[in-house]
Amino acid sequence: MATPDLDRRFCVAPMLDWSDRHCRVFWRQLSRHAVLYTEMVTTGALLHGDQHRHLQFSDIEHPVALQLGGSDPAALVQATKLAAEWGYDEVNLNCGCPSDRVQNGFFGACLMARPDLVADCVKAMLDTGTLPITVKHRIGIDDQEGYGPLRDFVGQLADAGCGTVIVHARKAWLQGLSPKENREIPPLNYPMVYQLKRDFPTMEVVINGGINAIDDAVSHLSQVDGSMLGRSIYQNPYQLAEVDNKIYQQAGTPPSRVEVVRRMYPYIEQELGQGTRLHHITRHMLGLFNGCPGARQFRRHLSENANTAEAGTDTLEAALNYVVSAQQRSEEYQQQRAAQH
């Protein structure tokens, strides 16, 4: 069911409290082609809560996928139809989150113990005929050992018509480890994900987990169809500026960090006019200048000033001036040293 116009060679992971619509607009200034994923939205929140708050997004975010949490086929069908109505490009079913809250709602990683139910959910969602349906999952949970349980899980998804899996190459321990520990402690097993691609050659396999650089993402493409990065992109977002060239072979010079900030101004002005606080947008931009002169002052100025009611693009421009001034001083110093030699 994977569609040729949704090129998942590079994806940015769904991240709770981070990959919201403001963050995705910011990321889109850096890459036009990476597939972006929303935070996980539960079917209950979507069907009984504020749909506009959960589903609104900007046209610039395409290609963008909605990640759903749920295990009731009927509810997932309704949510999938809503995703199509709102214009999303894909729906992704979360079978990888190990948190207690998610387990109590009977979705996330615990669903790997019920491949039959997940297959029923996927088939029902696909039967809507609206959007590609993908599944994000782990290589196993708890006491599942070896490759067999993973192969059987993906085999049932394939039989249900699922064309794409996104595989976090770690097991999830549903008891005894926090979600943060589950991202770090279980050992990575990339070869197991590579084996999936060999055993299911017509299925699109995207690898996730422990990938911290674009060059590493590229290296996985010799074994699988796509790579997904999460926290490393959030913490060092300027990496995304490499994606269109290195992964999608698009010619051109990426925008500078300063250009990226100023490209956000029209969006920020629009959002401020609708009551959004500047902080809700700029909190996602704090890592943009990591490693650059003036980065600390940039972060501090926004942290101290962006949350006030009157904060606007002038606040962001003032923060930006710390970086521009520090860069100028650094260049002048380098020129002086060069002249002395």
Which short descriptors sum up this protein?
eight-stranded parallel beta barrel; TIM Barrel; tRNA-dihydrouridine(20/20a) synthase; alpha/beta; Four Helix Bundle (Hemerythrin (Met), subunit A); globular; tRNA processing; 2 domains; 17 helices; 341 residues
Number of strands: 8
- Which architecture of the largest domain does the CATH hierarchy give at level 2? Alpha-Beta Barrel
The CATH superfamily label of the largest domain reads Aldolase class I
Share of helical residues: 40-55%
CATH class of the largest domain: Alpha Beta
Binding site for FMN: 14-16, 67, 136, 168, 208-210, 230-231
Pfam families: Dus
Function: Catalyzes the synthesis of 5,6-dihydrouridine (D), a modified base found in the D-loop of most tRNAs, via the reduction of the C5-C6 double bond in target uridines. Specifically modifies U20 and U20a in tRNAs.
Protein name: tRNA-dihydrouridine(20/20a) synthase
Overview of this protein structure:
By secondary structure, the protein is α/β, with parallel strands linked by helices. Helices cover 45% and strands 15% of the residues. Helix 6 packs parallel to helix 7 and helix 16 (295-305) runs antiparallel to helix 17 (313-340). The model has no long low-confidence stretch (mean pLDDT 94). It has two domains: 10-246, Aldolase class I (TIM Barrel), CATH 3.20.20; 257-340, Up-down Bundle (Four Helix Bundle (Hemerythrin (Met), subunit A)), CATH 1.20.120.1460. The protein contains 17 helices and eight strands. The longest helix has 28 residues, at 313-340. The N and C termini lie far apart (62 Å). Strands 1-2-3-4-5-6-7-8 form an eight-stranded parallel barrel, surrounded by six helices. Helix 1 links the parallel strand 1 and strand 2.
